[in-house]
Amino acid sequence: MAYHKVNADQRAQGHSPYLDNDELQATALELEWDMEKELEEPGFDHFQLDGAVQHHLGNSQSPDLDLEPIQPSSSPKGRFQRLQEDPDYVSHYTRQAPKSNRCSFFQILKVFCTALILFIFGIVIGYYARKKCPSPPTSQEPNNPHIYHEILKEIKAENIKQIYRDLLQFPREDDVDIAMKILVQWSSQGLEDVQLVNYSVLLDLPGSSSNTVTLKNSGECFYPSGQQCDRETKTLHSQDLLYSYAAYSAKGTLEAELVDIQYGTVEDLIRIQAITNVTKKIALLKLGQSPLLYKLSLLEDAGFGGVLLYADPCDLPKTTDLADKAFMVSLNSGGDPSTPGYASIDGSYRQYRPNLTTLLVQPISAELAKKLVSLPGDTVQKDRCIHLQLPATGKKVISLNIQSVTTYKTISNVIGYLKGTVFPDRYIIIGSHHNGLNAYGGQEWASSTAIITAFIQALMLKVRRGWRPDRTIVFCSWGGTSFGNIGSYEWAEDLKRVLQRNVVAYISLHNPVRGNSTLHPVASPSLQQLAAESQSFNCVEETRCPGSNVSSVQIQGDSDYFINHLGVPAMQFSYEDIKTSENSSFLFEALFPVRTTKTEELDPSFSLHETIAKLTGQVTLQIANEPVLPFNALDIALEVQNSLKGDEGDIPQLLAVAARLRDTAELFQSDEMRPANDPKERAPIRVRMLNDVLQSLEKSFLVHRVPPGLYRNILYRLDERTRQFSVLLEALEHCKLHQSNETIQAALSEVLNSINSAQVYFKAGLDVFETTLAGKK
Asked: Which Pfam family, just one, is annotated for this protein (predicted)?
């Protein structure tokens, strides 16, 4: 277009519309000069764009072309100034009045109206959405104890009682069936993510007929309960007779002399071996005082062939009548025996291990034990209980017949998740168990399941109002507990890598109401202070204030793997009867028939169940919601020092490293934990680093080699009577039995390395904090 206008004056009337060569060259030179000048002038960008469009349209002279984007050049010799001086400019290129101002006004008005309508519409939607679906609140400071109170007040004894009765009405023929019942119950309470996790495991089940004990001198045959072998008694309590056995015991028949070894301590063995040869003989062994698996390992090493196991009436609680009852025990230290150390998933290599010991082990009632030792039925004289003891004179030969069936069965775990909002990858696990045995295991499984279900119910009421915990709470009902905590072991082995990193604490509900006399709280050293404080909190709610001492002792149940393989801090509240003797420890290893532990007789109003539920709920909520984990590092160091007091032998190295651990723990407690607990000084990166350290405090105390039945976590003592590390006590006993100090030296080395590892871990945590804070400054 610009090219045509520049050369318009060269077209005279009658001339050809095309230029000759000379004229074309001159015109081209002039055009080139004009182009170079125009490139130097402002506004050329618009010209270039229009020129490109014109190139496609050709040399059209249509008057409708819009020249608005082309601005006049400011150059005195610019092309558009020369075009305006051309007399033919107006006549050749007349143009309409510009429309852009009017169009721009309507476009702006249209955009403004649309934006206004959308803004008003958005406000209306946001108002109603906020009204109907309130957003979850952020983490309170310090997560508002009032919220805990609102949740816990929803836990009521009558609700627990109703859940308990509903569970008992369901037939327990199969582990999977009861697990499905629990899954449906938890889902109906509103728990979003509930899973059924199945494993095929090797179980040792009773045979088709009961085991028997026969006196060879008289020919009398007895069932484990003490009843004589005849058809009437066999059909009367068939389940009790069948399930009075030791799972994973050796099978077969053994005829041998009966030897009374009392509680099977090292002193008992030394005494017996000094007067007789015990090879292939049958030991009469009392339950209690130390772990059963440990005592059986001593008897197996000594050369015994069989064991008759019973509970002395003087050791049993006075509130129970168990003298004529046999019981079940498991000789499995934990997990599926066919996959030791790894999960029983499809495709895993299976080891067929029907026997976990070479001993033929048979539990019997105290009544049968009395008949074997030829004592009258009444062993209580003038308010003094007489402990059962085989007479020194005379020799008793018995025949022991044990039959059981080892087969693969499916056990089921119920796993439910309540996801956290701030730290969803940190887990607080609450574990109960369900029992698949027809009539054994008592009703404790229903008590623990009812308590955990009532807690879920109270939590979900608050969740529906928009609240959620900061950390994830995992609810577990384990299967296969009575056979050696199989369900919890397999699940934890299956998820071991995840759990090692993510689990913060384990709260156990194993047999929460086994008596009605005293509250018995057990907690790892780092959680003892929290357990004591939770009792104080409950005293405000209840007129009956327990105020029991918190101890770190070995406990029964599915917390085993988490304590001894993952090093996770654990806690458990339970009601028990007053112990009648110092030998009553580890009586809980016996699993008595259901009729002997009627829960509703122990706690008719279910007030004890409510107390356990609220105590468990209180500690769970605090661990799940406190910004800084409520663990006490200094208590661990103090527990270590207390456990070294009174040990025999020369242990100056242990005392020195324990003192360093205490000094480091005190520094950690004062310099890091106290500032982090102050909201004014709390920094997110500091809290995260601190929680990572607190979460792994107890992992340093896992030793590699321990005798059967003893905890790998040395922070837990055998019972309340002992203060020393259990591995050191056992090593000293072993030294007496074998006249060698190799075991004690190995145990001392294990303990020394554990304490030193913990001290180094604390020190490394302090160094990281100092480096991080120095970098920030």
From this structure: Peptidase_M28
Quick one: CA torsion of 162, 164, 165, 171, rounded to 10 degrees? 140
Contacts of 430 (CB under 8 A, 6+ apart): 452, 455, 473, 474, 475, 476, 507, 509, 616, 620
Q: Which two tokens stand for residue 553?
A: 């002792």
Residue 193's DSSP bridge partners are: 417
Q: Are 474 and 505 in contact (CB under 8 A)?
A: no
Residues forming a β-bridge with 410: 200
> What gap in Å lies between CA 744 and CA 33, rounded to an integer?
106
Q: What is the pTM of this model?
A: 0.79
Q: How far apart, in whole angstroms, are the C-alpha atoms of residue 632 and residue 4?
A: 93
How far is 309 from 211, CA to CA, in rounded Å?
A: 13
What amino acid occupies position 1? Answer: M
CA distance 229 to 209: 11
For the chain, first and last CA: distance in Å? 69
Report the candidate in 380, 451, 421, 404 with the shortest Cα–Cα distance to residue 250.
404
Dump pLDDT digits (tens) for 721-760. Answer: 888 899 998 888 888 887 777 888 889 999 999 999 999 9
- SS3 letters for 606-660? CHHHHHHHHHHHHHHHHHHHCCCCCCCHHHHHHHHHHHCCCCCCCCHHHHHHHHH
Q: Please name the amino acid found at residue 321.
A: D
Residue 259 pairs in a beta bridge with 283
Q: Residue 169 burial (CB < 10 Å; 0-12/13-18/19+)? A: exposed
Contacts 24+ apart (CB under 8 A), 536-543: 537/618, 538/611, 538/614, 538/615, 538/618, 541/152, 541/153, 541/614, 542/611
* Spans of the chain below 70 pLDDT: 1-103, 126-143, 171-173, 231-240, 319, 375-383, 436-442, 537-548, 580-582, 594-597, 646-650, 674-681, 770-777
Spatial contact of 551 and 519, defined as CB atoms under 8 Å apart: no
Parallel, antiparallel or unpaired: strands 360-363 and 329-330: unpaired
3-state DSSP call for residue 605? coil
- The pLDDT, as a whole number, for residue 583 is 72
